[in-house]
Amino acid sequence: MISKSHVGLYVTESYVACGEVSGFLTTPKLTRFSRVLFSEVEVAKKGEGEQEAQLGQQQATPETQLDMRAEAIKQVFENAGIRKREVDVALTAEEVMVRYFEMPLLPRKEWDAGIRFEAKKYIPFKMEEVVSDYLVFKVDRKQARMHIIFVAAKKDSVQELIGMLQELNIKVKSIEMVAFSLARSLQEQLSVDGATLLIEVESEYVTISIIKHATPFFTRDIPFAQKVPGLDYGSMFDFGSPDSEAREVPLAMEPMYESLFSEIRLSFDYYVKRFGVDDIRKIILIGIEGADEFEKWKNMLKHEFDIAVELAALSVKKEGNGKIDAEKEDYFASPGLLVVCGLGLRSFRGFGNLIDLYEFEGKTHKKIVDLFPRIAVAEVAVACILLIAVQMKGMQTVGTERSTLERLQAQQTSDMETFGMLSIQQLTAYQEKMTKRRNFLKTMLVDRDYLTKKINFLNQVLAKEIWINYLETGYHPVNGSFLRLKGAAFSKDKEKEIAAVNQLLTVIKEHKGFRQLFDRVELSEIKKGKIMEADITEVELVFWKR
Predict the structure, then answer these.
(1) Which among 307, 357, 379, 438 has the fewest CB atoms less than 10 Å away?
(2) Nearest residue to 539 via CA among 527, 531, 530
(3) DSSP letter string, 190-212
């Protein structure tokens, strides 16, 4: 299999992070990562003799800051050993505006113009001064309304970043808001039955984001360290000596935490009022390093909001091969690492591409109907490969078990001669062992072999709008053997999608082959989904046999 890799780049006010995620289809892994602080770049460029003078400056000039960024980007690629020069980029929360609004339902071909026209009411800049993109996350046909998440950033700052990267011979593939990257890298931790609050802690500010269905519905930067003049940023999360029994929040910092919690409550209230739900089920902390600091934050947040609190952890595995400095970078807590992993996951199946703020001359958006045939062919090819692999593995297992059965039958006569010398307890234990063995052999040699030969009837009853991309067999101790199929339906006419699913269920139930194989079939799940930008209907069927 051919592996593919994607590089994520995150440039903040204090550091640059870069990482590479590699893998095949749905098995991405972090293979390279590095982070470079601007302060380290200053020392490296100016030398130790000028270090004190540089640190004494309160503010660097824009030209100096640009040079520092460029030098840091060069170093971060070199340190991580990344040769690929195409990157997905994330913008910090303070560089991006996120707006939610509703508007009358429009035909799909009018979405782009209509949504951008409506967004003028909510963006405090002229539309020609910003780069923007949007997500239609809900369409209410009964009320003839559509729900929009609109994201925009100042065009000047984005073009400045793109120009700097081009001078470094780095090509930009996409640009998104950091909250989307975090949601993607933390997808296994996000609440499945509600919303999740992300709290990203940096030295001078805290960013809070409310994520639902892997989509940021709200994001906000809250100044933190500036609340206490003269407070050392580097020690603001130091709650005392690690050996101290009572690690209390310093008195000087209490107003800061009170202000932070007040801002979080306001964000909760806005979310509840704006969306009409009170479903924040979990808080995930990002950027908290060390068990002591995490426990302190966890206790304070649980006391204030009575919500489960977790520490951020990546949803991909790490295989650094010496290119990830684990001692320098906290694998689970670093915001930079989480962001670049989320960027690297953009192009992997199942992680999604939602927002892209990268605008350039000649950029076009293909129609969904043009993209879909290629997607469908790829899905069918992958499904065929998986089915062939499952069949070959099954044949190998069955062959092994048949040989074992023949060997046991040959030994049966000699075994019977020894039974007369066994005790009742020994005979009972042997009987239980043989019963388990018999059940296993029956499952492998009879049930599965029978299902394999008969399951071909599904190919004859599938409508042209439906394809299958997942198959699983198993045994439930109460309900019996089962076969689970997952697939999707697509049609230009969405009513035809639902009709195709209903027709499939009717045909299966009335099919003679089904009645011989299974006792019943149930529609386990049917929901809306996406492939690229195509709206599809995802279907899960479960066949049962006692």
Answers:
(1) 438
(2) 527
(3) S-SSSEEEEEEE-SSEEEEEEEE
Look up residue 178 and give its two tokens.
């950091």
Q: Pairing relation of β-strands 280-286 and 195-201?
A: parallel
Contact assessment for residue 518 and residue 481, using Cβ atoms and an 8 Å cutoff: no
Is residue 411 classed exposed, middle or buried when 0-12, 13-18 and 19+ CB atoms within 10 A define those classes?
A: exposed
Q: Locate 261 and state its tokens.
A: 């919690």
User: Which two three-digit tokens encode residue 101?
Assistant: 């609004």
Please provide the DSSP assignment of 90-155 as one string. Answer: EE-GGGEEEEEEEEE---GGGHHHHHHHHHTTT-SS-GGGEEEEEEEEEEETTTTEEEEEEEEEEH
Q: Could you give the CA distance from residue 367 to residue 373 in angstroms, rounded to a whole number?
A: 11
- N- to C-terminal Cα separation, the chain: 39
For residue 248, what is the DSSP state? Answer: P
* Strands of 358-508, DSSP E: 466-476, 480-489
Retrieve residue 156's tokens. 């000047």
- Torsion (CA) 213, 494, 464, 393 in degrees, nearest 10: 10
Number of helical H runs and strand E runs in the chain: 15, 18
In angstroms, how far is CA 3 from the centroid of its own chain?
A: 19
The answer to whether the CB of 9 falls within 8 A of the CB of 22 is: no
Q: How far apart are CA 214 and CA 211, in angstroms?
A: 6
pLDDT in tens, the chain (546 residues): 456 888 999 998 888 999 998 886 557 888 888 888 887 776 455 544 454 444 444 455 666 677 788 889 999 999 888 988 899 999 988 889 889 899 999 998 899 899 999 999 988 888 889 999 998 888 888 899 999 999 999 999 999 999 999 999 999 999 999 999 998 888 888 888 889 999 988 766 788 899 988 888 888 888 765 434 444 433 444 444 334 343 344 444 566 777 788 888 888 888 888 888 888 999 998 887 777 778 888 888 888 888 999 888 877 776 655 566 544 444 445 888 899 888 988 877 666 657 888 876 545 443 333 333 444 455 556 566 767 776 676 677 767 777 777 676 666 555 555 555 566 777 777 778 888 777 766 665 555 555 555 666 676 677 777 778 777 777 776 677 778 888 888 877 777 777 887 877 787 777 777 767 777 788 777 888 877 677 888 888 888 876
Burial 182-203 (b: 16+ CB within 10 A, else e): bbbbbbebbbeeebbbbbbbbe
